[in-house]
Amino acid sequence: MRPFPERLDCGLPYPLGATWDGLGVNFAVFSAHAERMELCLFDDNGKREIARFDLPEHTNEIWHGYLPNAMPGLVYGYRAYGPFDPLHGHRFNPHKLLLDPYAKAFAGSFRWTDALFGHRIRSSRADLSFDRRDSAPAMLKSVVIEERPCDDEDVRPYIPWSDTVIYEAHVRGLTKLLDAVVPRERGTFAALANPHVISHLRRLGVTTIELMPVHAILQDRFLLERKLSNYWGYNSLNFFTPEPRYLSTGMVNEMRMAIRRLHKAGLEVILDVVYNHTCEGNELGPTLSWRGLDNQSYYRLLPDDRRYYINDTGTGNTLNLSHPRVVQMVLDSLRYWATTFQVDGFRFDLGMNLGREDSGYDPGAGFFDALRQDPTLARLKLISEPWDIGLGGYQLGNMPPGFAEWNDRYRDTLRRYWRGDSGQRGDLARRLSGSADVFGHSSRRPWSSINFVTAHDGMTLEDLVSYEGRRNDANGENPGGHGDTLSANWGTEGPSDDPQILAARDRVKRSLLVSLMASLGTPMLLAGDEFGRTQRGNDNAYCQDNEVSWLDWSLASTERGQALIEFVSRLNEIRKAYPVLRSTRFLHGDEEIAPGIRNIDWFDERGRSISEHDWHNPEGRALVMRLASRRQRTKADLIALCVNGSNMKLEFRMPDKLPWRVLVDSAQVLSDHGRMLHSFQVEAGAAVILAAHAELRS
After folding, report:
1. Residue 169 in contact with residue 527, Cβ under 8 Å?
2. How far apart are CA 550 and CA 543, in angstroms?
């Protein structure tokens, strides 16, 4: 680089961030309340400050300046000057070096020290005190990068929602113990695109991998002190930078290549994104970026006491998505991942929080409006976790049209039913048929319901049938996790070598999977459930970056593991072969497909339509869901899901005289797929999928 000039040129207020134009770098950073903004430059490793400039211009609340002859690789940070007045929401402290919110790469390393806090940690005045120590030696620094254009050869699969089967996974945990991957690549994006991983996903029949957060995160100080770490990654340090631990090469191209290879294999990639809060925590947290740049703009503060943060997320702070610059930052981040990395969609952690306005949750909030009209983002898959811990924080079914939503009512109903709880038949029918009672409005479709039995947050499928209580002692918290796991151990708590207990557990696991894949809506599988992964009863393993959370691939080569993998693969084949299981509209039984056969019908084990009284019978534990759709001008395809949630074998009779064929039976590892009469036996705790054909009226 040539010698630095005495001052920066004016530059431009757009785009935000550090942008190299081939001749120099434009710097632009938002702060509505700062009185002065300094750009600090460092040597290549980020250890020594080599220059400092005032950003010369302040246009529309954007501070900006231009450094001629600067190149990609330049290391920098900001210092913001303004009032330190926590009682009125201002926490400026120029002694704290700040990350650029738009940084796309880091230099140096982060080291926890009291100097990272804007206040004196041990002061009797707490966060009202002022700390004058320089935080730069302990801080990560931002790095200027050369932006890469979109790769025109990387074509998204664009799998229809109705055909989508999601596989939720963690970049690190998925391959950390996978012997087929060379050691230095395990737990990284390079391993995610390993042929063994891709082959496994294709064998299962899933279409879309949903990755837990890949944004750069801050490791919580309290976890490190307990010799633990934030494994899940819901603790964002930056919204534009991949987590460095997931890059074996240290280069972001590794992530691009992984996504491209998954696309070549016909697989979509969805990112779980965290825009509801940041890692800076509450008023006692560190000053790393947003807090020091403009605390009052970036965060939602209590209206009657601006010292404190609204904590609808349970993490100490909540991003202020009612501020236009914060909305812009989030949308710019989404577009960055969508265009530069070609991701296929996003799952929004605590998604309803993004629709909070001063008056409460609003499905017509500014962020939702901006997202849904964006020509790039509106075409992608958008999934919301429709709750947070704030007032009115449960909004299942109330996300704007265009969103799919995690359906926890589906999860809980399926768990209760197969655990043997009474009074579940009516709600089970609603969940199996797509949860129209929740999503059947605003022209929404069955795919709006993300159906799942397990997810990262909670027990694995194996643990769900092996533990009645949580085993979270390893977290060092009491107790952490959910209050009610809705689980059962089927005879003994924890691991067992009793053949009868293992058989019961495997049957219930298969029944849960059969129900999941035969339901209308979008099914989601948790990585490792297909071969019996366990977290040893831990239902909140957010801090377990170890064998508790990592997938033990040795289970996949066992007889039980192989059998379950084949079973999941068979279920996906069935779902793909019968379009009615992927219905693009809700079925209400108001259309006759064949004589006496409607598009959806419900029966008990005797083949009788269920009366209103029987729907409310708490001991009614058997159910048949029969679906029908036209296949040809003269024929109709029929699918029947028969479930027996009782503790005894039941004789099921179909209401018609058609020859039904068993497609899958959860009481058996492999079914013979032979023809059978219209009556048959279903084992206790088992589910069966049948198929038949019917003649249409000429």
Report:
1. yes
2. 12
Domain boundaries, the chain: 17-143, 172-275+321-398, 588-695
Residues 6+ apart with CB under 8 A from 147: 19, 20, 104, 340
| Cα–Cα distance, 397 to 362 (Å, whole number) | 13
pLDDT tens for 636-658 read 999 999 999 999 999 999 998 89
Kindly report the number of other CB atoms within 10 A of residue 195's CB atom: 11
Kindly provide the b/e burial profile for residues 615-632, where b requires at least 16 CB atoms within 10 angstroms of the residue's own CB.
Answer: eeeeebbbbbbbbbbbbe
Question: What is the pLDDT at residue 154?
Answer: 74
**What DSSP element (H or E) covers 661?**
strand 660-665
> What kind of fold does domain 172-275+321-398 have according to CATH?
TIM Barrel (3.20.20)
Amino acid 632: pLDDT: 76
Q: Is the pLDDT of residue 408 over 80?
A: yes
Residues 27 and 65: beta-carbon distance below 8 Å = yes
Per-residue pLDDT band for 668 (boundaries 50, 70, 90) equals: confident
In whole angstroms, what is the distance from residue 474 CA to residue 543 CA?
9
Helices within 387-452 (DSSP H only): 408-419, 425-432, 436-439
Set 294, 349, 388, 637: catalytic member: 349
CA dist list (Å): 190 to 183, 270, 461: 11, 17, 27
Checking if the pLDDT of 273 tops 70, the result is: yes
Active-site residue flag, 168: no
Q: What is the pLDDT of residue 353?
A: 96
Give residue 151's pLDDT: 64
- Note the pTM of the prediction, 2 decimals: 0.97
Give the CATH number of domain 17-143: 2.60.40.10
Mean pLDDT taken over the chain: 95
284 pLDDT band (50/70/90 cuts)?
A: very high
What CATH class has 588-695?
mainly beta
Token pair 């932006």: residue = 147
Burial code (b: 16+ CB inside 10 Å, e: under 16) for 375-399 equals eebeebbbbbbbbbebeebebbbbb
Q: Which of 385, 405, 427, 462 is catalytic?
A: 385
Q: What is the pLDDT of residue 358?
A: 87
d(CA 209, CA 268): 6
On the question of a common fold for 17-143 and 588-695, the answer reads: yes
Q: 280 catalytic, yes or no?
A: no
Q: Locate 611 and state its tokens.
A: 């009366």
Residue 633 — pLDDT band, cuts 50, 70, 90? confident
Cα first-last separation, the chain: 81
Contact of 460 with 534, CB cutoff 8 Å:
yes
